[in-house]
RNA sequence: GGAGAGUUGGCAGAGCGGUAAUGCAUCGGACUCGAAAUCCGACGAACCGGUUUUUCCGGCGGGCAGGUUCGACUCCUGUACUCUCCUCCA
C-alpha cells in the first residue's frame, strides 16, 4: 500500500514512477479526487459529531438536574440523521478510494530498469560456465522418467496436469536439496520456521497477493472457509508479525521456511507444460527479512548473495538480473532474479526471486517498530527464494547428466544422500 | 462437532444505557551528595481530519460487524479468537 499523504504531496512523482509499471496518470488523479472528497466529508461529518457530543452532554446534565431536555433531544435526532447520511457517503468514498489504492503497485526504486515488458532486464553478473556437452543434453523430464525417479503419468491420473510424483532417489534428491538449503540458511542466521500452509484472506491481503490474486484466480481457495493454500511461504512468514510492533532490538528478523507452494497457473496455459518447471504444487525454501528502513537495500544484496552462494556450492551456472519495472511483482520496489542454466533448453530459467518491498507490505500488514525517538515506523520487508527446490532438481538433472542416462550428484549433496554419488536406474 | 466462560489503555482490573474508576508501569518535578522510598504533576493504544513543520482543536475508539436508542463499553443479533469440559482424532 502506498502512503496516501505522499501521493497527495507528490502527485507528479508518483505518476512518473507508476507510469513505468503501466499505471495511467488518470488513475492517480482519480485517487486524489477520492481523497479530496473523503477529507471534505470527514470535515463536515466531524463538525456534526462534535455538535452531537455537545448536545448529548447537555441532555445528560439536564437529566441530572431533573430539567427538561426536549430541545436537546430533538437536536440530537436531527444531527443524528444528518450524520447518518453523511457517513454513508463517506463510507462509499472511502471504499472507492481504498479499492483503487489497493490495486496500485509499489514505487520502483531508483536503478530499476524502466520497461513496460520484461525486455530490458539488466544482467548484473554471470557466474559459472555452461558445460560443454559431447552429446545432446536431454530435458530433465526425459532423464527423470527414464531413471524412474519422476512419474508424471501417475500424477496426471491421481491429481491432474502440473503435478508430479518423485520416486525413490528422486524423492531423496528433493529432500537432500531442501535440507541442504535449510542448513545453509540456518548457518546464515535465518530462524527456521514451519508455518501454516493455509492462510486467511487478511494475510493474503497483507502481503499484497489479494485483491489481484483473487481476481486473477491465481490460487487455490478452500471452499466454505476464509482460507487459501499458500502460493509462497512469504505469506505466512511476513504475516507472522502482522498488526504487531517488532521490538527494535530484534531487527533485523530473518526467517526461512521450507513449504510447498500452491499456484493455479491460470493464464500460463501451454507454457512449461512438461517437467518440474511450472507445477500446481512445488517445494520452495523461502527467506524473509524484516529490517529498519535504512538497512533494507543492504539486506536485498545480502539475500541475493546468499541465494547465489547456494548455487555456487551446487556448482550450477547462473546469472543475476534486475527485473524491469513492469516485470517485478506487485509489491516489489526492486527485484533480483537468479536464473540457472538449463542445457536442454539452452537458456537460463528463474530459480530465485529476491525483492525489497520497502514499506509496501508493512503498510498493508501494519508491521512496525519504534525508532530511536520512540516513534512508530513501518519496517521494511524483503523476501527471496533460497531456493526453489523442484527447479533445483531439474537443474541438477540437466547439468549433471551423463551420456548413459545417469546423473551425478553434486558433491555438497552427497552427504545428504547417504554418500550416493550417482543416480542410475538401479537406485 | 456439542456446552459454557471470556475478549476494556504497556500490564492488571472496575463499572454494566449518558459518554472509560483505580492500581502497577512510563514520563516530568520535589526531596537527596546520589539512589531507593515518599510526595506532587502529566500521560492511557493505534488511527483519521483541521491547523501546525513544536502546538492546539476535533473525530474515532472498549475483539470485529450490524441492530435497538436522542444517546451503548453497557441491551439484542451475527462473527472471530482465547480458555475449560465433552466428543472426535494423527
TrEMBL record:
UniProt GO MF annotations: ATP binding; catalytic activity, acting on a protein; serine-tRNA ligase activity; transferase activity
Keyword Aminoacyl-tRNA synthetase: yes
Biological function: Catalyzes the attachment of serine to tRNA(Ser). Is also able to aminoacylate tRNA(Sec) with serine, to form the misacylated tRNA L-seryl-tRNA(Sec), which will be further converted into selenocysteinyl-tRNA(Sec).
EC category name: ligase
SUPFAM superfamilies, alphabetized: Class II aaRS and biotin synthetases, tRNA-binding arm
Domain Aminoacyl-transfer RNA synthetases class-II family profile: start-end pairs: 172-410
One GO biological process term: selenocysteine biosynthetic process
Keywords on record: Aminoacyl-tRNA synthetase, ATP-binding, Coiled coil, Cytoplasm, Ligase, Nucleotide-binding, Protein biosynthesis
Protein name, as recorded: Serine--tRNA ligase
Protein location: Cytoplasm
UniProt similarity note: Belongs to the class-II aminoacyl-tRNA synthetase family. Type-1 seryl-tRNA synthetase subfamily.
Biochemical pathway: Aminoacyl-tRNA biosynthesis; selenocysteinyl-tRNA(Sec) biosynthesis; L-seryl-tRNA(Sec) from L-serine and tRNA(Sec): step 1/1
Amino acid at each position: 500500500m502506498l502512503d496516501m499523504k505522499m501521493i497527495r504531496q507528490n502527485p507528479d512523482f508518483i505518476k512518473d514512477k507508476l507510469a513505468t509499471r503501466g499505471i495511467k496518470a488518470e488513475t492517480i488523479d482519480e485517487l486524489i479526487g477520492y481523497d479530496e472528497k473523503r477529507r471534505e466529508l470527514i470535515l463536515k461529518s466531524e463538525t456534526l459529531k462534535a455538535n452531537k457530543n455537545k448536545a448529548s452532554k447537555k441532555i445528560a446534565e439536564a437529566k441530572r438536574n431533573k430539567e427538561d431536555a426536549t430541545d436537546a433531544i430533538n437536536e440530537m435526532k436531527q444531527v443524528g440523521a444528518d450524520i447518518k447520511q453523511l457517513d454513508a457517503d463517506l463510507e462509499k468514498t472511502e471504499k472507492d478510494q481504498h479499492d483503487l489504492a489497493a490495486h496500485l503497485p509499489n514505487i520502483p526504486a531508483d536503478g530499476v530498469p524502466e520497461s513496460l515488458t520484461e525486455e530490458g532486464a539488466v544482467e548484473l553478473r554471470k557466474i559459472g560456465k555452461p558445460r560443454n556437452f559431447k552429446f545432446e543434453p536431454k530435458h530433465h523430464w526425459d532423464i527423470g522418467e527414464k531413471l524412474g525417479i519422476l512419474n508424471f503419468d501417475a500424477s496426471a491420473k491421481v491429481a491432474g496436469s502440473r503435478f508430479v510424483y518423485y520416486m525413490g532417489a528422486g524423492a531423496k534428491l528433493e529432500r537432500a536439496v531442501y535440507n541442504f538449503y535449510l542448513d545453509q540458511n540456518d548457518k546464515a542466521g535465518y530462524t527456521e520456521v514451519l508455518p501454516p500452509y493455509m492462510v486467511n484472506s487478511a494475510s493474503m491481503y497483507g502481503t499484497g497477493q489479494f485483491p489481484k490474486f483473487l481476481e486473477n484466480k491465481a490460487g487455490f481457495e478452500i471452499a466454505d472457509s476464509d482460507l487459501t493454500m499458500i502460493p509462497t511461504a512469504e505469506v505466512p512468514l511476513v504475516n507472522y508479525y502482522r498488526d504487531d510492533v517488532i521490538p527494535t532490538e530484534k531487527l533485523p528478523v530473518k526467517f526461512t521456511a521450507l513449504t510447498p507452494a500452491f499456484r493455479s497457473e491460470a493464464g500460463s496455459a501451454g507454457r512449461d507444460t512438461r517437467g518440474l518447471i511450472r507445477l500446481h504444487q512445488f517445494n520452495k525454501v523461502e527467506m524473509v527479512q524484516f529490517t529498519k528502513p535504512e538497512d533494507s537495500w543492504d539486506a536485498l544484496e545480502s539475500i541475493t548473495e546468499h541465494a547465489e552462494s547456494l548455487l555456487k556450492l551446487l556448482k550450477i551456472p547462473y546469472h543475476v538480473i534486475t527485473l524491469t519495472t513492469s516485470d517485478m511483482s506487485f509489491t516489489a520496489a526492486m527485484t533480483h532474479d537468479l536464473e540457472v542454466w538449463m542445457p536442454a533448453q539452452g537458456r537460463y530459467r528463474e530459480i530465485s526471486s529476491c525483492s525489497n518491498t520497502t514499506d509496501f507490505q508493512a503498510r498493508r500488514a501494519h508491521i512496525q517498530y519504534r525508532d530511536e525517538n520512540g516513534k512508530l515506523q513501518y519496517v521494511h520487508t524483503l523476501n527471496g527464494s533460497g531456493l526453489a527446490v523442484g527447479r533445483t532438481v531439474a537443474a541438477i538433472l540437466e547439468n549433471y547428466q551423463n551420456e548413459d542416462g545417469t546423473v551425478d550428484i553434486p558433491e555438497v549433496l552427497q552427504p545428504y544422500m547417504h554418500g550416493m554419488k550417482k543416480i542410475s536406474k538401479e537406485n
